[in-house]
């Protein structure tokens, strides 16, 4: 959900479903979720003249391999990406030496995303993934922590507040709105 908020900002409305799909443990403890962030058309963003619904979801019951990670559907193109970040498996395989390898964080071509464009129906364009870098991420966290931005704190609080609202609202199904 943090990626959706980073990309699109605060939504106008949120709807969510939280479920205990496997019926294991307490029924009130969810193991699956679907969260929809609703955005109105944006006059300041010409490419978003239509309403937008951004969805984050997870289910522990899916047997599909590799798992779908991103699916973006637009009026002129669609993009799909499967699989997990390769860095974790590389760390398991090579240990701490993995970080120093040239291929650390590099996905094989079969894992790249697929782009489908309206102007080229039937054609699939492979989109190479950026090289991942846990090291850079942690260096960035350390840098931000030393500066400790108030806006970062406010954004994190907003995310936590949204999650709290989702848990409070999960029974009513009415959705959460803001003026």
Description:
With 179 residues, this protein is an alpha+beta fold. It has a single domain, classed as Dihydrodipicolinate Reductase, domain 2 (2-Layer Sandwich). The chain is 27% helix and 25% strand. It contains 4 helices and 8 strands, in the order H-E-E-E-E-E-H-E-E-H-H-E. The strands form 2 sheets. Strands 3-2-1-8 form a 4-stranded antiparallel sheet. A hairpin with a 7-residue loop joins strand 6 and strand 7. The radius of gyration is 19 Å and the shape is globular.
Give the helices and strands, then pairings.
Layout lengths: L1 H7 L4 E7 L12 E8 L12 E7 L9 E6 L3 E6 L4 H8 L18 E5 L7 E3 L6 H14 L2 H20 L6 E2 L2
Antiparallel strand pairs: 1-2, 1-8, 2-3, 4-5, 5-6, 6-7
In short:
By secondary structure, the protein is α+β, with helices and mostly antiparallel strands. The protein has helices at residues 2-8, 87-94, 134-147, 150-169, and strands at residues 13-19, 32-39, 52-58, 68-73, 77-82, 113-117, 125-127, 176-177.
């Amino acid at each position: 959900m943090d990626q959706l908020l980073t990309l699109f900002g605060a939504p106008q409305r949120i709807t969510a479903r939280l479920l205990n799909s496997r019926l294991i443990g307490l029924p009130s403890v969810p193991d699956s979720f679907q969260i929809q962030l609703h955005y109105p058309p944006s006059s300041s963003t010409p490419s978003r003249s239509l309403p937008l619904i951004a969805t984050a979801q997870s289910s522990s019951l899916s047997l599909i391999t590799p798992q779908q990670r991103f699916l973006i559907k637009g009026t002129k193109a669609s993009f799909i990406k499967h699989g997990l970040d390769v860095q974790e498996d590389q760390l398991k395989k090579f240990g701490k030496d993995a970080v120093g390898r040239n291929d650390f964080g590099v996905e094989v071509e079969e894992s790249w995303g697929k782009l489908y464009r309206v102007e080229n129906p039937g054609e699939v364009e492979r989109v190479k993934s950026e090289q991942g870098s846990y090291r850079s991420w942690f260096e960035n966290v350390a840098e931000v922590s030393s500066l400790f931005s108030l806006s970062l704190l406010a954004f994190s609080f907003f995310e936590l507040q949204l999650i709290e609202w989702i848990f409070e609202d999960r029974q009513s199904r009415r959705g959460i709105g803001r003026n």
